[in-house]
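Let's practice the habit of predicting before peeking. Look at the sequence and jot down your guess about where helices and strands might fall. Then scroll down.
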Amino acid sequence: MNTNFHQENINVGMERLKPVYWNPIFLGDELYLLVSEGLWSQLLANEYIWQTAQIEGKEFAELVIDGFYSFGKERKQENARSYKCRN
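Done guessing? Here is the structure:
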């Protein structure tokens, strides 16, 4: 794979994540889309989630993972609301 192409995909992904960074559920959704569209590998998404956990904490990262694995499901709406109420 061309290194410039790979770096460009990473940069595009990072730009797409900026608007949703503070909502962990939507961040998980966007990570899911990046992986499913083939812009990011699952390994890169996992690394991003791990780094987010180091910065924002375990609870935030768990909600990101919930958003990633429950893409399009209703229960994450409730999780997002309860997270906003606590912060």
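How did you do? The helical segments are 3-17, 24-36, 42-56, 58-69, 75-86.
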